[in-house]
Amino acid sequence: MRAFQSVLLAAVVVSCGCTVVSSAELTEQELDAIRRASGAYVQAWLANDAEAVMATFVPEPVLSPPRMPVLEGQEAAQSFWWPEGSAPTTVTRFETEVAEVGGSGHVGFVRGTFVLEFEYEGASYTNLGTYLHLLEETQDAGWRISHHFWNDFPRE
Question: For residues 56 and 41, is the Cβ–Cβ distance under 8 A?
Answer without folding.
Answer: yes
